[in-house]
């Protein structure tokens, strides 16, 4: 596999929302096939790192869907939008500083506790299973604009999840990946149902 051609192909595959903020890196020593760290709000761009040795073992449609999932997940995490937990985290951080200046230990503990709880909820909303399933759905929608049917895209993403577990030496899928498989399977089976009725 020509890595330069593959990076160019993946950049063309990327939705417009990701082209400005996502950059691709290669790391053959990386133990995972693809890595997309949790986005930091102070960074202008976010990286997706591929292990080219493992990456070439997936089929082209599997690579497309795994990559689209990572891009859709990165672009969907919004840490700075005004919502309840973001507001609570900011208020807690300000209150923590005020209580620190005043030297009020009880107030400091309460404010820092509020900040910690809000930050944990923000983290969970961006990394939890629901966020990954939402990124799967977004990846399927982008794949439909790139020539795949929804059923084909779901089938390829499902196969890629299972192949990734084997390639990365996990043997079995994680709990989150099992839930993703459960979400994708009905969509992928629609493809086999369509083929069976048309035959």
Brief account:
This protein is mainly alpha-helical and 199 residues long.
- Please state the overall shape, judged from the principal axes of the Cα atoms: elongated
Radius of gyration computed on alpha carbons = 20 Å
Mean pLDDT: 82
The number of domains is: 2
Span of the ends, CA to CA: 36 Å
Point out poorly predicted stretches. Answer: 193-199
Task: Please state the structural category.
Answer: mainly alpha
Biggest sheet: strand arrangement: 1-3-2
List how many beta strands DSSP finds: 3
Q: Mind describing the biggest β-sheet?
A: 3 strands, mixed
Strand content: 5-15%
Account of the protein in words:
- This protein has 2 domains: 3-79 and 127-198, no CATH class; 84-126.
- Helix 5 runs antiparallel to helix 6 (105-127).
- Strands 1-3-2 form a 3-stranded mixed beta sheet.
- The chain has helices at 3-13, 16-19, 52-55, 60-76, 84-102, 105-127, 129-145, 150-167, 175-198; strands spanning 22-26, 34-35, 46-50.
- Helix content is 69%, strand content 6%.
- The chain is mainly alpha-helical and 199 residues long.
List keywords for this structure.
199 residues, mainly alpha, 2 domains, 3 strands
List the helices and strands and how they pair.
Blueprint: H1 3-13, H2 16-19, E1 22-26, E2 34-35, E3 46-50, H3 52-55, H4 60-76, H5 84-102, H6 105-127, H7 129-145, H8 150-167, H9 175-198
Parallel strand pairs: 1-3
Antiparallel strand pairs: 2-3
Helix pairs in contact: 4-7, 4-8, 5-6, 7-8, 7-9, 8-9
């Amino acid at each position: 596999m020509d890595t330069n051609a593959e990076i160019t192909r993946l950049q063309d595959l990327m939705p417009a929302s990701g082209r400005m903020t996502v950059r691709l890196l290669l790391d053959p020593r990386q133990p995972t096939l693809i890595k997309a760290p949790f986005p930091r709000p102070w960074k202008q761009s976010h990286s997706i790192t591929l292990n080219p040795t493992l990456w070439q073992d997936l089929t082209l449609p599997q690579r497309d869907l795994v990559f689209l999932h990572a891009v859709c997940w990165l672009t969907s995490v919004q840490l700075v939008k005004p919502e309840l937990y973001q507001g609570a985290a900011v208020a807690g951080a300000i209150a923590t500083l005020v209580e620190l200046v005043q030297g009020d230990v009880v107030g400091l503990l309460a404010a820092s506790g509020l900040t910690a709880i809000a930050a944990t909820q923000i983290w969970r909303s961006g990394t939890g299973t629901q966020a990954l399933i939402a990124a799967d759905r977004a990846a399927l929608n982008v794949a439909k604009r790139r020539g795949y049917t929804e059923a084909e895209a779901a089938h390829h993403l499902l196969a890629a999840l299972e192949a990734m577990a084997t390639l990365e030496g996990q043997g079995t899928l994680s709990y989150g990946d099992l839930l993703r498989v459960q979400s994708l399977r009905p969509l992928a089976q629609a493809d086999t149902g369509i083929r069976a009725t048309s035959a």
